[in-house]
Write a structure and sequence with these properties.
Length: about 525
């Protein structure tokens, strides 16, 4: 246990954890606590600074306040400030409680036993530490939410009489990422993507919807392997596509995660299947010595059981008590990939979890998958930045040693780095991918299939070509930007006359460049036409 010298809260600083301040000033809230106690935690996403000048402004990383906003220059003053004015940071609180005597925290609560902020502090301490403070239960007063409107919480939390606090935290002490209500997330959440996704199949025949579903599952499977730089055989792509089709319908469990890994990495000649029993990292090896050069270090194997238990509880709790679906999906999926419980297959199972949670919450048309992996593949550099943002903040706090076989062994206690983190950038990324899927990718694919069917029916009525050859003809046209290549004309389609080839190419252009003369399915209002990717 330790205390921070009082003068550490009054220090004038110009940088924080190597980050340049927008101007010289005094740290406030979480930043002051981290600095004063030397807490081994990533810096909160948004920090507070008391300026020496009488001006107030915000930057992406800092809230700069005037001297009149300065809290009392002690630990409880800055803790009160953080709980009132900053987004909740469970990682900082847990690290702080590790170094504060329980009697000190109990004394702070007894000083203001009915105060909203102190009751929340009391709840956080007992929730995080698993130990009861020597404070009698609150006997009167209204209930306050554990998580205020600055972050996404459960719609239906637990009312805890001891503190008169509503526990609306999305997770449990085992794992609880939090997501801030940023302007971007507020805008995206206001677009009602769930309703737009549900309306996508209005007026589309069932057989076409089934074909679209099969095509999208295969595309999602292929893109997920492409993200990993792998080109598996067709049978593995189909198997993983079928697994994706079950997302949301099979209960999530440790055994289910292991089943998914077996599907995605088989055959596993050089991979040890199952949860890791050794360290793990993402990165590369030194070309000469073979020493590991990590970009990300995985959770310690001894911490995996509690972290995975926390992950499953997070998925269950956010489903049963209504957390915003995209926030729930991003929190669970990125928590999984940061923990990295497998030797191989983590990335693909992580993207499966996005599909699973969204499908389970009813986001998307019934029977039609949401192919997020192609959207992620199209934003691959941004995806890597979102992953690296977490890893770059955590890696300096992980003490590790290289093992003789080129792996890593973690030397310090790192569990809380994976249990409590700000998943806001990840949630924003998933929401942007979902917006692309719902407003562009799915309508384009359905539209492309409709146009393909109209073209096929038209050509079948004009040319005496068997159905299988007809599909091959359209595929050749698609591959060659609407023209029939010399090879095709001299090979499979040599019987076609020049006039027939010209008619075929004109019909293709009419179908895919916007022509409606070939007829088609009735369309629901508001579903505009888009060019098929096949015609681009």
């Amino acid at each position: 246990m330790q205390t921070a010298p009082a003068d550490r809260f009054s220090d004038l600083v110009t940088d924080f954890q190597g980050q340049q301040l927008p101007e010289p000033g005094r740290l406030a809230g979480y930043a002051a606590l981290v600095n004063a106690f030397g807490l081994p935690v990533p810096a909160p996403s948004v920090l507070s600074l008391i300026s020496l000048k009488h001006r107030r402004y915000d930057t992406p990383e800092w809230r700069v306040l005037t001297p009149r906003h300065a809290p009392a220059a002690d630990a409880i003053g800055h803790l009160d400030f953080a709980l009132r004015h900053e987004a909740l940071d469970l990682g900082v609180l847990r690290a702080l409680f590790d170094v504060l005597p329980a009697a000190t925290v109990a004394g702070w609560v007894r000083d203001q036993p009915t105060g909203r902020t102190r009751r929340r502090l009391w709840f956080y301490y007992e929730w995080l530490m698993g130990n009861a403070l020597d404070v009698p239960d609150v006997r009167e007063g209204g209930y306050v939410p554990a998580l205020d409107g600055r972050q996404f919480g459960l719609a239906r939390g637990d009312r805890l009489r001891r503190y008169r606090v509503v526990d609306n935290l999305p997770g449990t002490p085992g794992l609880c990422p939090l997501v801030r209500r940023t302007e971007k997330l507020a805008r995206l959440a206001g677009t009602d993507l769930r309703a737009r996704a549900a309306a996508l199949l209005d007026g589309v025949p069932a057989d076409l919807a089934a074909r679209a579903s099969a095509f999208l599952l295969l595309a999602d499977s292929r893109a997920s392997f492409d993200i990993e730089g792998e080109k598996p055989p067709q049978d593995r792509l189909h198997r993983w596509g079928q697994a994706l089709a079950q997302g949301g319908s099979r209960p999530l469990s440790a055994d289910e995660l292991l089943r998914l890994q077996r599907l995605v990495v088989a055959p596993a000649r050089f991979v040890r299947l199952g949860f890791r029993t050794e360290g793990g990292f993402v990165g590369r090896h030194d070309r000469d010595s073979g020493a590991p050069i990590p970009d990300h270090v995985s959770a310690r194997p001894e911490d995996l059981p509690s972290l995975l238990e926390g992950l499953l509880a997070l998925v269950s709790r956010t489903r049963d008590r209504d957390l915003e679906p995209v926030v729930a999906a991003a929190s669970a999926a990125f928590a999984f990939v940061f923990v990295h419980p497998f030797e191989d297959g983590n990335g693909r199972v992580h993207r499966y979890l996005l599909q699973h949670v969204l499908s389970e919450r009813g986001v998307g048309p019934p029977g039609l998958p949401l192919p997020l992996s192609p959207a992620i593949l199209a934003r691959l550099a941004e995806y890597h930045r979102v992953l690296e943002r977490y890893s770059a903040a955590v890696l300096p706090l992980v003490e590790w040693r290289a093992t003789p076989d080129g792996n890593v062994r973690v030397l310090n206690d790192t569990a809380r780095l994976y249990r409590y983190f700000d998943a806001t950038p990840q949630a924003e990324f998933v929401y942007e991918c979902l917006e692309q899927v719902v407003t562009r990718d799915l309508p384009a694919e359905i539209d492309g299939l409709e146009r393909h069917d109209r073209l096929r029916a038209h050509l079948q009525s004009r040319l005496d070509i068997p159905g299988r050859k007809l599909d091959l003809l359209i595929a050749f046209l698609r591959q060659n930007r609407g023209r029939l290549s010399r090879r095709a004309r001299s090979g499979e389609f040599a019987p076609l006359t020049d006039e027939e080839v010209a008619e075929v190419e004109a019909a293709y252009a009419d179908a895919f460049e916007g022509g409606s003369r070939l007829g088609g399915y009735p369309r629901s209002p508001g579903r505009g036409r888009r060019r098929s990717p096949a015609a681009r």
